[in-house]
Amino acid sequence: xxxxxxxxxxxxxxxxxxxxxxxxxxxxxxxxxxxxxxxxxxxxxxxxxxxxxxxxxxxxxxxxxxxxxxxxxxxxxxxxxxxxxxxxxxxxxxxxxxxxxxxxxxxxxxxxxxxxxxxxxxxxxxxxxxxxxxxxxxxxxxxxxxxxxxxxxxxxxxxxxxxxxxxxxxxxxxxxxxxxxxxxxxxxxxxxxxxxxx
Length: 198
Prior knowledge:
Elements: H1 3-15, E1 20-23, H2 32-44, E2 59-62, E3 65-68, H3 69-77, H4 92-101, E4 105-110, H5 117-124, E5 132-135, E6 149-152, H6 155-163, E7 168-171, E8 185-187, H7 190-197
Parallel strand pairs: 1-4, 1-6, 4-5, 6-7, 7-8
Antiparallel strand pairs: 2-3
């Protein structure tokens, strides 16, 4: 690299503010709803898609059955290996690497029950073995003072973080598209998020 270009590159790197980024896990860093729906579809012979999940306590109609999505979700959570077998959200690994390469700090911030933490931490290692997993069962607004920005999909978490002075960003999902009073900036995917962070 030319010395002049190298100096300018380093100066620009030094000028960039180093941010503390918090990213939710479920439906932001891993497509958990799709993972659960795959299990539901396999169990009931249904063909539900992510667009069928428009709220947390979703009732899914399949023939003469009413399937409780939330109940099925936790039944699957309690199945050993289910959480650690979840895939990574498209672009998440690359996005997190980009943020780390830019000198930002990245943490996972999750409200999952403590009993799921060992498997959650094991899952996180596939993205980066050094990423910190912060447990926030009481609500993410209690942790937001430790972060500059939160990427999340939950309307409740986004709203609470916003009113407590945090900087929430909405990861677009069907269940947060028509929520009133949700003013957090919206991104469609990880690339859009990482491109907008600086």
